[in-house]
Task: structure prediction
Amino acid sequence: MSDSRQTRTGDQRDDGGVVEDFEHCYRAVQSRDPRFDGWFYTAVTSTGIYCRPSCPARTPAPAHVRFYPSAAAAQQAGFRACLRCRPDAAPGSPEWNVRADVVARAMRCIADGVVDREGVVGLASRVGYGVRHLHRMLAGEVGAGPLALARAQRAQTARLLVETTELGMAEIAFAAGFSSVRQFNDTVRRVLGRTPTQLRERAAHVRGHGRLAPHRGGTDGSAAASTIALRLPYRRPMAVPEVLRFLGARAVQGVEAFAPGSYARTLRLPHGHGLVTLVPGDGHVSARLALADLRDLSAAVARCRRLLDLDADPDAVDAALGNDPLLRPLVRATPGRRIAGAVDGFETAVRAVVGQQVSVPAARRVLARLVAGAGLEVGVPVPSGDPLAPTRPGTTRALARVFPNPGEVLAARPEAFAMPAARREALLALARAADGGGLALDAGADPEEVAARLVAIRGIGPWTASYVALRALGDPDVFLPGDLGVRRALARLGAPTAPAAALALSATWRPWRSYALMHLWSIATPVREEAA
Result:
């Protein structure tokens, strides 16, 4: 398993974007192992269809098989998606979360919908490269340029809306990011081999046989029409309850709500606000999204996936950390532990600054006051029947506000900052840096540049910069040797707790020290006593 993945990462591909390591990929297809889904895609020349490696269909003869590094590359080669295994809905490649180079940052931005909102020029500007050079790098790595990758994502979004809502086709076309209904029809037909109407009829037939039960909204553009239920797949194993509990323990009143078995929060999205409720499922996380603007669907899904680290490769992480005698019992007790990520980089940076030298409950109270004083009221109603809706008329609902952006923090009144003056000044300096555009904290940010900009702000030190890299940027190799929770966990394990000794100990956990950190935090003192 791990050998084939290492080979896949270093593959050299021909001009058509075909993965050359045929032997390892074909063995993976024969095994129908879902852990390979998203690493590569199987195209069958005799049928013109591409699948995920775990597709239950009969394994084709080697002479009829081609392997591609992305769904977009297979589509560019003229193959259409399998309607049985839905390869475009597979978990994403773990590479783009592990790596911090230009291609990985660009892939994260494309998933967030940057190309649809800002074009290829905007994407290139975010990652700091020219359009032509960025195209060459993406084509060399994933077999397709930014436009083809964005088109593949639009097709997946369109299929989701066609199959799970009753919106009109014109509404779906523009919500999915297409510039015209004709472009929408042509792309769906070419990528999926069906017209949008045929896809809807097929979905209705499947629902009639009890295999699919999506939420169906109205058709009048109301909030109900913008409520979508979908599944976010992941690679097994995954400790979903643990990551939800981590988020719930740090939930800020008004923005987040947690109950055993579910976590919900408000979202600030490019075109409006949103709400999401996340519930563990069998091989997936069930997500119920209420969006003010359906054009934000792709961005909302991408951010939820990053929040829960759904594209991680748990086998590689657990194999590496499980080899260490100190961590082996923790890995065996909770296989598939993930990094608790973020839906907004600035929000995470604010949380890190506020959480310096205070307990988690104290930080939550300070953040709740900031949200109440600076955050906007969420601009989308809670769907009727949702557990988060007010139980009685006139009562306050659990999710009332979105976390303030840099401009709103700068405009907040002094009473919103329930913190020492020095920390308030650090927070305002952070907001000024982010508001001016000089400090980018999004999916395309350069981690080294972010760290340098953060520590240059008075009142922000290496711990805060590393915490932002861990949660906002998804860096898999962050370690906090001086963190109080880490020191307490190491003491419980009988390991040295001095920062220098802890840092030396963590060297054997590379490149997965962020996951080791999550394991250590899980056995530290209870959250009510935890301090940053």
About this structure: The first strand starts at residue 41 and ends at 44.
